[in-house]
Amino acid sequence: MAARQRSHPPALARPPRTDHYVRGTLLLLLIWAWSAAALCAPHEHKQPVVLAPGYAPLEFTAPEPGSYGLPPMGAAADGDVLDSSGNEARLHDFIGDKPTVLSFIFTTCDDVNGCPLATYVMRSVQDALQADPLTANKARLVSFSFDPLFDTPDVIDAYGSQFRAQDFDWQFLTTEGAATLDPILSAYDQWVIRDYDANGDYMGTMSHILRVFLIDESRQIRNIYSTSFLHADTVANDVRSLLIEAQKNANTAAKTSR
Q1: Can you give the pTM of this predicted structure?
Q2: HSE-CB for 167 with a 13 A CA cutoff
Q3: What dotted CATH number matches 19-47+72-256?
């Protein structure tokens, strides 16, 4: 599945963002990545010169939630995972009961337009949804590591504590290892290439593409965001659109059952 750009009609104006907030969150993400990377093999990502659009104010007026469609793009895959407390679980335990934004990351990624962008946008989505009583507890974020060797439950818990609000449902997941991780990555078309030395030992570095998924209550993928199209304003409004759709479906079902 390829990421799709959606065209939206103009609607409600986007709340203003401050450069201070962008710089502060980005600095926190990069400090974490650089500190963690010092504990493992040096990362080969080069610092990009141009930041992704997700760090800047949206260049168009965000569309009004519910004013556009988000056709299903396929079923969200399942698999064995570990939560941030080390408990065994299934990925479907964290998706399906409410709209979910799922991102694949690894905590030592120092490509500012890669995993740090995903976490920055997720944090901004969290703040936007939490600020509205109508959405504060009706959506979930899931950050799923594809580096189980370094990103143990303790590591992802410490990483998540830097960004997760106390009362918001943001889950951080990892796996036992490649045997359980790789089938999940394959099912989501999450491309990852691990780096190995001459002896065949994993060096702790990898190349990957950024993919963030919007998943509805029926575990259907409704959007896939790439680096160029990942922005908190549009993601948050997509979540709101799914909530509006679910409410309309519930109202229709209630009328039909009378």
Answers
A1: 0.81
A2: 9
A3: 3.40.30.10
